[in-house]
Design brief:
Elements (H helix, E strand, L loop, with lengths): L5 H4 L21 E4 L2 E4 L20 H7 L9 E5 L6 H9 L6 E16 L11 E18 L1 H11 L3 E7 L5 E2 L8 E7 L3 E2 L12 H11 L1 H7 L3 H10 L1 H13 L3 E2 L2 H4 L14
Parallel strand pairs: 3-8
Antiparallel strand pairs: 1-2, 1-4, 3-5, 4-5, 4-7, 6-8, 9-10
Amino acid sequence: MKDRSLKALGLAEVAATQPLIYPGRPVAESALLHGDELLRLEPLDDRPGAWPVIDGGRITLDKLLAEIGQPTVDHRVPVLAVGSNASPGQVSHKLTRLGLPAVVPMVPVRVGGIGVGVSGHISPAGYVAASPYLDPATESVLVVTWLDPAQLAAVDATEIPDYRRILIDGDEHAMTLPSGEQLPSAYLYINVNGVLATPDGAPRPAQEQRSLLSGLLASSERLREMFGPDPETWITRAGADPRLRAAGTRVFAEEGWVLRQKELLNHAPAGTDPAPVTS
């Protein structure tokens, strides 16, 4: 059987420790993150828990989860990943450093009306992360991760206070799994600082981190003074000094680059668990 380790698949990199590779490589096919491996799933016209695990003897996902003592899909909640939470290496890092099992179904999903932009703040690792924004004309390919309650709390701790977890309704934003099934609802982390804009006022699209930081440095003398002259220096300085990160975040707003997201912020808070997919 083909080596399904994250290292062999080129998916082991961790943006939290290598900020310039942010957001890392996302999963490209339906899979189960299982420790340091990524086991393929076969999407069927059925609830995800009934999908066969191709690299696990073709037993169903729920059966495999139960056999290894982990919550089945119906005891997890779907969370849309916009940035590094779509990368198996990053997800494994976030969970295992807290002693939690890195066992997470991860599935690409087409989402209507949500674009992927650039957050209006500088992260603790020094990079400028991805962040969602509303765009009725856009369809994005994101990754849905099914997290159990302990995993969800752990991911929350890495996102709050700069992100807020909200509930997205599938009637407003169609979320189509590879099987063709629709997610009725899912959680999404949105940035409370807003997203960065291009000179014409549109949301700035997410891009590779080196190019993004180079562009930001070229656009602002104040940012060059703080973080310049290059992306490597930016990451070193920003990652080492929370006060400098806060000052840089203020510069984003003072330069007039930040688009506030009132509509997204007014979405339902994450007080109700998303509905499960049923067949």
